[in-house]
What we know:
By secondary structure, the chain is α+β, with helices and mostly antiparallel strands. Helices cover 31% and strands 26% of the residues. The termini are far apart. The mean pLDDT is 96. Flavin-adenine dinucleotide is lined by residues 29-37, 39, 54, 74, 97-98, 102, 105-107, 109-111, 113-114, 119-121, 157, 162-163, 188.
Amino acid sequence: MIPAVFDYAAPESLQEAITTLVDGGEEAKLLAGGHSLIPLMKLRLAAPSLLIDLRKVPGLQGIQRENGSWRIGAMTPHTELEHSSELGIVARAAGTIADPQVRNRGTIGGSIAHGDPASDLLAVMMISEATVTLQGPDGQRTVGANELFRDYLETAIEPNEVLTEVRIQALDGWGFGYQKFNRRSEDWAMVAVSAVVKQTGDVCEDVRIGLTHMAGVPLRAHLVEEALRGASLSPENIAKAAEQAAEGTDPPADLNASEEYKRHLARVLCRRALQEAVGLA
Ligand SMILES: Cc1cc2nc3c(=O)[nH]c(=O)nc-3n(C[C@H](O)[C@H](O)[C@H](O)COP(=O)(O)OP(=O)(O)OC[C@H]3O[C@@H](n4cnc5c(N)ncnc54)[C@H](O)[C@@H]3O)c2cc1C
């Protein structure tokens, strides 16, 4: 498949990228790893007249620790996340994305901006209480992951804004688990559940659970979290709480799974992710 004709620009500064984006109007699109946008263009589901490649813009790559959080540049590829074990749940989930080729090219910023609810990193951003920095012609703003994902492939990022960096809480001392179910090992998630748990002894001090592909946007499993906070993390309590994982979800049925099957997967994967997070797996 061959995409429609388009122009290409590779700006060498963030300001130049924003100016080119604004001048290009609605038909201009930023290009990061190209692993979501180019397939859409090849299928003629997207036909931007101008691609603005971010790869030469300085300062958009890399991972740094700053006080109690991690700063991750938007152009940081999945493979760098995968090999940064200090990122905990983020590294674990990034390592399950497709195959090495996709992980070498695809970026955290591209994944977030694309807003596909089947992407591995989006619910993980929510449980990491991530914020993203967006730079546009009128300046900079910060948006939390919980306000970012509005609908299927729709985020709070304006068409004239560049996502420059992601900040996530450093969850030092928290346990984590990631359970992804797919038919072939390198496929997208049919359903995935991410969990981070802070415990003292066997008591749950805090817990956050993310659901992937259980609606048009990534979700938190708030009822499970509420059931476990302050409770003993016994296998029985975890199993009972995980039974509520599918409450309030709206999973899209597809060729692989019915809605009910996805709800079943959410419950099972939630229990397993929690068991993994507390070392019971
Ligand atoms: C075969 C295959 C299998 C895959 N499997 C998985 C999987 O299992 N799990 C998973 O999570 N993902 C999967 N992906 C998607 C992959 O992770 C992509 O890399 C990711 O979704 C998009 O990142 P990108 O850097 O390639 O973005 P691009 O494709 O370059 O861009 C995607 C969108 O984001 C916009 N954008 C990009 N960067 C910015 C920015 N900095 N600021 C504002 N807007 C921006 C673009 O304009 C575009 O609209 C798969 C992809 C392929 C091709």
